[in-house]
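Sorry to interrupt, but I need a hand with the structure work. Can you supply me with one protein entry, sequence and fold together? No commentary is needed, just the two lines. Leave the record below and I will have a look.
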Amino acid sequence: MKITIYHNPKCTTSRNTLALIRNTGAEPEVIEYLQTPPSRETLIQLIADAGVDVRGAMRPKETIYIEMGLDNPALTDAQLLDAVQAHPILMERPIVVTPSGTRICRPSELVLDILPLPHKGAFKKENGEQVIDAEGRRVI
């Protein structure tokens, strides 16, 4: 069973999502998308599979988003994709792909909806919030 996470190790949400995946015993393919951005075709497929539009797959609070005027509603999807390809930091993170679906996992708990394996034990996020109890059941 293949699980892929488009990951930024500097992001708490991305780290929590990766840890939730590993809590099932699975070892995902980890793609650090800032070093290895997805191709345009892959990015388009990820966005479609996640069920969002291009803007929904972008980080509007990134400084470069504002600086580039990407909040302009007149910009086309092609122009937005060009921006993400030129500046991968604009891609929302993390994106997880499993046999059960694709999700932009913000918050990290969204990954629980697509994990095909049960959890092996308790899990707390980095901030101490309990997500999975000792029996492997979802708390929230």
Observations:
- The chain has a mean pLDDT of 96.
- Helices lie at 12-22, 40-50, 63-67, 77-86.
- The longest strand covers residues 4-7.
